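Long-time lurker, first post. I've been practising inverse folding by hand and with some scripts of my own, and I keep getting stuck on stretches where the structure tokens seem ambiguous. Below is the full token string for one chain I'm working on. Before anyone asks, I'm not after the true native sequence, just a reasonable design that respects the backbone. If someone could post their per-position residues I'd love to compare against what I wrote down in my notebook.
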């Protein structure tokens, strides 16, 4: 009896001691970090996430996000022979082709931006893009007649989407799809969705080449500071032309220094084509950056406004809510849409001193 009486308080003491030990530890659980870098969709994809969960759990989350990106590559890459987009390109002029939800979602948005930008962004430039081959080993300056035969077509008006049956149909057989200007954005959105919904990640930075997407803010609560490359020295990531602070948003840049072919005479031909001329766009833009919530939208828009040029491009962006743009033009001038000017006054946008 006595022994029992004596035992209980000791157990309670031990329990109390343990609780007191664990509580403060739980309160200041360490922030862990996991990171991975892989080549997906011809782009270096870097995923960096933070959280109070275990390192193992964070590693699992990064691996799942990378898996999702790789599975989307099998849908969107025109460089993978048996990708879904290549199947559509080979068959959609014969009969409507049933497609995955992912492809249908991106195509719907692609056609929306093609018509919004009056063809500046055009997902049906596949044959023209393949003809130039910029960024591939076949890159060359094509014959003027070959270019003319594929230019000025607005073939996005010949794509028929059937939402009820989820099919894609081509009204004519003289074009093909290339979603290189929008797919990376969708991949970024999907990686973010998976990390937030399946792994409850609240702080992350995903970088897919010119596409950056953030989840929340930095672990100390401050904004992410992102740079827009200096076109004169794009590799020098420590010295960008513009610094921007964002949290939760995406920042997508289309720039003529990102991918180009240098002809034997030294002329550079970049990878963003103007469907109306069939040649690399000459709109006075060196880079166009979009800041908004959805990376797929930002991706399509960055290409569209690159082709439209700083003036027409800014006018288009001003019509869209919660969407901003920064342009660097041929003369090195940096211009921005009105919402960014406000941020500039708040000190959230820092223009680099010359
Ligand atoms: P981005 O880097 O997002 O501007 O996309 C450029 C890529 O999209 C190119 O490498 C092509 O695959 C494709 N592309 C080129 N010009 C256009 C255009 N005007 N509209 C849509 N896609 C394009
Ligand atoms: Mg784009």
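-- Answer (accepted) --
I ran through it position by position. Result:
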């Amino acid at each position: 009896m006595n022994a029992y009486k004596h035992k209980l308080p000791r157990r309670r003491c031990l329990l109390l001691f343990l609780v007191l030990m664990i509580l403060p530890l739980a309160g200041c659980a360490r922030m862990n970090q996991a990171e991975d870098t892989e080549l997906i969709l011809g782009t270096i994809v870097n995923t960096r996430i933070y959280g109070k969960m275990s390192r193992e759990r964070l590693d699992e989350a990064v691996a799942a996000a990378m898996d999702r990106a790789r599975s989307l590559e099998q849908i969107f890459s025109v460089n993978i022979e048996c990708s879904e987009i290549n199947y559509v390109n080979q068959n959609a002029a014969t009969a409507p082709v049933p497609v995955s939800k992912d492809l249908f979602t991106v195509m719907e948005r692609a056609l929306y931006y093609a018509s919004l930008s009056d063809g500046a962004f055009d997902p049906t430039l596949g044959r023209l893009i393949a003809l130039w081959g910029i960024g591939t080993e076949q890159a060359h300056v094509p014959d003027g007649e070959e270019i003319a035969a594929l230019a000025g077509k607005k073939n996005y008006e010949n794509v028929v989407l059937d939402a009820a049956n989820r099919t894609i149909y081509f009204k004519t057989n003289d074009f093909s799809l290339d979603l290189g200007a929008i797919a990376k954005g969708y991949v970024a959105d999907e990686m973010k969705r998976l990390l937030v919904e399946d792994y409850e990640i609240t702080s992350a930075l995903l970088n897919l080449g010119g596409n950056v997407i953030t989840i929340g803010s930095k672990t100390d609560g401050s904004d992410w500071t992102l740079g827009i490359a200096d076109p004169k020295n794009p590799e020098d990531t420590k010295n960008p032309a513009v610094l921007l602070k964002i949290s939760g948003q995406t920042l997508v840049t289309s720039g003529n220094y990102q991918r180009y072919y240098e002809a034997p005479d030294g002329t550079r031909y970049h990878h963003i084509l103007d469907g109306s001329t069939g040649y690399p766009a000459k709109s006075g833009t060196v880079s166009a950056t979009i800041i908004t919530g959805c990376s797929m939208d930002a991706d399509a828009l960055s290409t569209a406004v690159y082709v439209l040029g700083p003036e027409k491009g800014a006018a288009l962006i001003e019509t869209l809510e919660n969407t901003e743009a920064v342009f660097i033009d041929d003369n090195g001038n940096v211009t921005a849409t009105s919402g960014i000017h406000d941020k500039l006054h708040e000190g959230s946008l820092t223009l680099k001193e010359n």
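A couple of notes from the structure itself: Confidence is low (pLDDT under 50) at residues 1-8, 13-27. The first strand starts at residue 32 and ends at 40. Happy to go over any region you disagree with.
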